């Protein structure tokens, strides 16, 4: 189940908040490795490392790293401070974190009786790669929004546009450490995200929560979010079956938003570049998650794409109208907003121009959510 190897750090390739990419050598040659300093300490060239090379051997696209399990000759100091929430429970690398909702949290009183999102729009998407595209649509709305922590940004031409506080709630269907996402780190750096909440078994966010429900409530009442985005972390798991994919959590997230009095906005997973028939047009992931798993109604953002492909998307989305409200969203101007993204756009190895429909569909959901904010939509 696990391929164990001993190695040595050759050099540090790059670092971003929470993670380090390394060059290591093993008995089998050189490899890329990933370390989370909060878990294993800070590797340095020359350090011996214990590695899990399973993902590397399998050739996984998203997670094709050797993972640093420990620095056996230089263990980190014991952690200090409160926190009794255990995540990645009963695995060899289970961390203890301070849950935003646990008794020792300074926000426990805030969340103890919290029961409503106060109508906050919450955009739900399948893949982590939708996150920056949704933000491009959100900030590229008309009239424009701007990130709350910046005086300018995507809306530089109209710097007086209303500011929005945006939180990302990361589900545990993909990567468990939020640190794995370079996109999250960069979006936080440029002020496009006001905070990351990791829920379930996921960890490493600005706030830790037990469930998607308390994660959403923390986004609203602790981070003060005007809008939230919910996706799984990087590394979607799928089996080519109707029910065997981690993105079913998108439907469950719609239910959570609804029961808490939020306004769920469903982003469709759309592709014109995927070679797999089940993902061409509207992916079966969206049709199952929203059509079968989501029991509460959402507003489904249907991008108004041109030509025959646009008509195909509209027709495929049609059956979702049995339970949901389908909202046509114009995509004019969204390509320019996507092109100016502060992070590289990529889904399943395809960039913006290789699968434009995917990114436009995600951005359309952001654009629609912006229209629901009181300062924008009326």
What kind of sheet is the major sheet?
8 strands, parallel
* Outline type: globular
Mean pLDDT: 91
Radius of gyration: 21 Å
Number of helices: 12
Give helix % range. Answer: 25-40%
Q: Strand content of the residues, in percent?
A: 15-25%
Give the count of structural domains: 2
Instruction: Give the strand order, joined by hyphens, for the main sheet.
Output: 13-12-11-14-8-15-18-19
Distance between the termini: 55 Å
Structural class: alpha/beta
Weakly predicted, low-confidence segments: 150-160
The strand count comes to: 19
Can you walk through the features of this model?
The protein is an alpha/beta fold and 378 residues long. The protein has two domains: 4-70, Beta Barrel (OB fold (Dihydrolipoamide Acetyltransferase, E2P)); 108-377, no CATH class. It contains twelve helices and 19 strands. The chain has helices at 37-40, 54-58, 108-112, 130-139, 182-189, 212-221, 249-259, 284-293, 307-317, 334-339, 356-372, 374-377; strands spanning 4-16, 19-26, 29-35, 48-52, 66-70, 85-86, 96-97, 121-124, 146-147, 163-164, 166-171, 195-198, 207-208, 227-232, 263-267, 270-271, 281-282, 299-304, 325-330. An eight-stranded parallel sheet has the order 13-12-11-14-8-15-18-19, sandwiched between helices. A five-stranded mixed beta barrel has the order 1-2-3-5-4. A hairpin with a 2-residue loop joins strand 1 and strand 2 (19-26). Helix 4 (130-139) crosses helix 11 (356-372). The protein is globular. The model is unreliable at 150-160 (pLDDT under 50).
